Amino acid sequence: MAATTGTSDHIYKILELVGSSEKSIEDAIQNAISRASKTIREMKWFEVVQTRGHVENGAVGHYQVTLRVGFTLEE
After folding, report:
1. For 25-61, how does the pLDDT look when each residue is reduced to its tens digit (9 = 90+)?
2. Cα 54 to Cα 47: distance, rounded to the nearest angstrom
3. 31 phi and psi, to 5 degrees?
4. Average pLDDT of the chain?
5. For residues 29 and 66, what is the distance between their CA atoms, to the nearest angstrom?
6. Which residues contact residue 46 at a Cβ distance below 8 angstroms, ignoring those fewer than 6 apart?
7. Residue 57 burial (CB < 10 Å; 0-12/13-18/19+)?
8. Which residues on neighbouring strands pair with residue 53, listed in sequence order?
9. DSSP secondary structure, 4-66, as one string
């Protein structure tokens, strides 16, 4: 059996975020991650699970993206 110098198991907590932007889908993602990083440490990955938007006067008014974000639990 090989010796280990730390935990190699990765345990994540998953939360759901919804970001929005008038500019783009990418900006909506960045807005959600940026805001969440102010209170959530150790975010490691995200997955876009839903994309939608709002139409105003025949044009895109804003984009909205639902994300699942994984972060590691503190020991």
Report:
1. 999 999 999 999 999 988 999 999 999 999 999 999 9
2. 21
3. -60, -45
4. 89
5. 8
6. 29, 33, 67, 68, 69, 70
7. exposed
8. 63
9. -SS-----EEEEEEEEEESS-HHHHHHHHHHHHTTT---EEEEEEEEEEEEEETTEEEEEEEE
